[in-house]
Amino acid sequence: MRTHYCAHLSEKDVDREVVLAGWANSYRDHGGVIFIDLRDRSGIVQLVCDPAISPKAHEVAERVRDEYVLIAKGRVRLRGEGLENPRLATGKIEVVVEELTIENESDPLPFTIGDDQVGEEIRLKYRYLDLRTKRALETFTLRSKAAMAARNYLDRQGFIEVETPILTKSTPEGARDYLVPSRLYPGHFYALPQSPQLFKQLLMVAGFDRYFQIARCFRDEDLRADRQPEFTQIDVEMSFCTQDEVMEVAEGLIQAIFAEAGIEVPTPIRRLPYKEAMERYGSDKPDLRYGLELVDVIDLFANTQLKVFREIAQFRKLNRIKALPVPGGSKLTRKEIDALTEFVAKFGAKGLAWVKVKEDGELQGPIVKFLSQEEKEGLIQRTGVGPGDLIFFGAGPKGVVLEYMGRLRQEVAKLMGLIDQGRYEFVWIVDFPMFEIEEGEVKIKALHHPFTMPKNIDTEEIEEMISEAYDIVVNGVELGGGSIRIHKASIQQKIFEILGISEQEAQEKFGFLLEALRFGAPPHGGFAIGFDRLIMLLTGQESIRDVIAFPKTQKAQCLLTQAPSPVEPQQLRELHLRIREPKRG
């Protein structure tokens, strides 16, 4: 139906007869001669419909409106001096139309394509129109190339692509499962996989040695900008490997994908132990594009007159007093500091102490009168501040302080314009604790998942058990992670015992895996990278909804198809289901 894509034409094609197809991007009538900007996937070229050349084509052109689907036959010519359009790749040429066909008309659009002021609900309802923008096309072209780069790299490394089941068994993996009722087995359910974790381990037991998959995953959890109920990850597993070898493969994969966007990723990527990341940055996914490191100052306040600090300092293992030195922070106004105080209150802070360093080197602020000269000098020396700088303080229980001071660090960086948006800073977070105990709960949980190999399985202190787990972080975003897996049934059983999972419960939930581990399971490990988040970072989008062709809203709805939706009673009967109306009041 066509000989060329619109933007593939150039001066080399002058006098060539071409057939083009696409959408009417715009329409202009200049004194009888009609100009149409024709758009296809490649870009735009200008059509000229001159009644002196083709009265019939001009007659058809008079009926054309925006977004009509057109097929045009004509001849390429130069626009002429002074008539070129430098904003278009085809700005030096145009196509004089000899034949024009309206292949399909378009109703008036619900919004102007490319209008950034249109609300997201409208854009998602008419997602197929929203995807007609140049930015959307560039995003999904890059996504396609990134997926191809991943496949090509892993293929070169000897990995085999294997698809794992979508309908599987419900197993606890940290989030709610999406359940699918079985028609053939009343009262029984499949689950959509939160990840291919168990199956990729089974493939290692099978001797496949190196597996990968660009896998669809499903989690029924509350959504935010970087979450969707269904998402894509690059899933990788390998046998007879060390943690270093797995991370080396992951780094090569990241290099290959980022190269598609013209971004060089230096390797090896630096590594940062979990404890150090938390103490220095208040986060296990720190943004390293700027400094602003937290400094431990609890020992300086052991005998201070500042009562709150003194009481907190008596329990150094459970509590923290963290200083956040901010170079040039003295320029922050009292209004801005008050706003930051309100900000950290959302994350458990009961206040936000601060001091400024005056030009003469003296400290100034609400708490200064409670500080001894020795404490002042100790603070200046420990934090390295000088004239014009500012120090924020966080004090209280360890977990709470690290949480809000980490968020304060990010907020201050934004406020002071310290973030280089064109920079990519990668870091591996390693040596994660094997377990976590959430505040107010007695139950022990696996920090990653219960199939992660511990480094020190024989330690008597459960809190000191370290896992062979690792996360890859870029610009404060967790891009992915993985671990060396447990490949011995005896170790797996011990971890289940620590987690309070009985032998019966383990058999019910993971019996097939435990059985497989008894049939010669090799040492193995792997990782997964969130493909949607990766594309979001590469394209500078603020939400993964912008890099998924047909995403759900934050309420897990598809506005385009109106899913989820009721189904016919007959379908429910076939599945042996009955809907119970929720109680009111």
- What's the total count of β strands? 22
DSSP helical segment count: 15
Biggest sheet record: 8 strands, mixed
Taking pLDDT < 50 over at least 5 consecutive residues as the criterion, the unreliable ranges are none
Report the oligomer: single chain
Give the averaged pLDDT, no decimals: 93
CATH topology of the largest domain: BirA Bifunctional Protein, domain 2
Write a structural description.
There is one protein chain. With 585 residues, this protein is of the alpha+beta class. It has three domains: 6-104, OB fold (Dihydrolipoamide Acetyltransferase, E2P), CATH 2.40.50; 136-272 and 427-548, BirA Bifunctional Protein, domain 2; 290-419, 2-Layer Sandwich (Gyrase A, domain 2). Helix content is 28%, strand content 24%. The chain contains 15 helices and 22 strands. The protein has helices at residues 55-61, 120-125, 127-130, 134-156, 197-205, 243-259, 274-281, 307-313, 334-345, 373-383, 398-415, 489-498, 503-517, 531-539, 569-574, and strands at 17-30, 33-40, 43-49, 69-78, 93-104, 160-161, 178-181, 189-192, 210-218, 230-239, 271-273, 295-296, 319-326, 353-357, 363-364, 390-397, 426-430, 435-436, 445-446, 469-474, 477-484, 524-530. An eight-stranded mixed beta sheet has the order 6-9-10-22-21-20-17-11, sandwiched between helices. A five-stranded mixed beta barrel has the order 1-2-3-5-4. Helix 9 (334-345) crosses helix 11. The mean pLDDT is 93.
Blueprint of the fold:
Blueprint: E1 17-30, E2 33-40, E3 43-49, H1 55-61, E4 69-78, E5 93-104, H2 120-125, H3 127-130, H4 134-156, E6 160-161, E7 178-181, E8 189-192, H5 197-205, E9 210-218, E10 230-239, H6 243-259, E11 271-273, H7 274-281, E12 295-296, H8 307-313, E13 319-326, H9 334-345, E14 353-357, E15 363-364, H10 373-383, E16 390-397, H11 398-415, E17 426-430, E18 435-436, E19 445-446, E20 469-474, E21 477-484, H12 489-498, H13 503-517, E22 524-530, H14 531-539, H15 569-574
Parallel strand pairs: 3-5, 6-9, 11-17
Antiparallel strand pairs: 1-2, 1-4, 2-3, 4-5, 7-8, 9-10, 10-22, 12-13, 13-16, 14-15, 14-16, 17-20, 18-19, 20-21, 21-22
